[in-house]
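User: My instructor asked us to take a sequence, write out its structure as tokens, and then describe one feature of it. I'm not sure where to start. Here is the sequence I was given:
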Amino acid sequence: MLALVTGATGLVGNNVTRMLLEQGHQVRVMVRDPRADRSLAGLDVEIVPGDVRDEETVMTAARGVDAIIHAAAMVHIGWTKGKAMRQVNVEGSKAVGRAAIKNGVRMVHVSSVDALGVGKEDEPATEESPREGKIPCPYVLTKREAEDELRGMMSEGLDVVFMNPALMFGPWDWKPSSGRMLVSVVQKQPPMAPRGGGSTCDVRDVSAAIIQGMTKGRSGENYILAGENLRYFELWKRMAKITGRRPPWGRLGPVIAMLVGLGGDAYSQMDGTESEVNSAAIKIASQFHYYLSDKAKAELGYQNRPLDQTLEDTWLWFRKFGYLPE
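Assistant: Let's start with the prediction itself. The structure tokens for your sequence are:
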């Protein structure tokens, strides 16, 4: 099988690409500047330079493939960059969808649990939970809009399956993305953790389910790819223990969290670039993003390895590639 992978230099896309190759598949990737990226070095892939926002290039990259795994996305948790995120997350996804229709192939769309409803500490969300409760920042809105647009294209013949990963860790996090959390715990050893919690999983397990989605997923269906539900305070303590660092001693209270978020917003206005610490990020980190993956387990064979193994493998990978000191 020849698969086109977009976003192949990112955490999900790079792991999917490597796993497809390990399984004996042929892989074509579309990247903006292959010369400037080491994430694909040594991989036996066909490279098509291009951007998902350029529909002509997407059509060229999709020609002759058997399936498309669309993992390209712009991720920023904050109030800014909405226009750019809409161009990539919405218009780029539509361009990929049109290419899938023209070539008569399945599109596996890598979305996010942020496109779904928010869970609760005592009631994890499922694919059927009401899509409400999320902080309406541009990332959340554009991921939802992309799903809505692609689902609307099914009337034009689009065969699409939606994958909704939760908070992922694992190797090959070149940017890095969610691995920044572990790097921060190791380098900065913050004394206080966010108030909320999340569903934490391994990108390798997510990638295996995404590949299964090429043949086993039901068209038009969402599949949550989540993991262990736990508070960020507990997650950070486990990270600290595995890496030998000082654990946080408490959680941010609501007043302090609000002040931290507002302080981040004020600094961003002075600096001209929105910081990762902003009121949207703080509000999101105060919620409980808990989810169940029963549907993916039953239909795609999705499995979760132990979280401590995932965190240790992530830490060792960051050390090996120079993100953290040996």
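For the description part of your assignment, you could build on this observation: The mean pLDDT is 93. Try explaining in your own words what that tells you about the chain.
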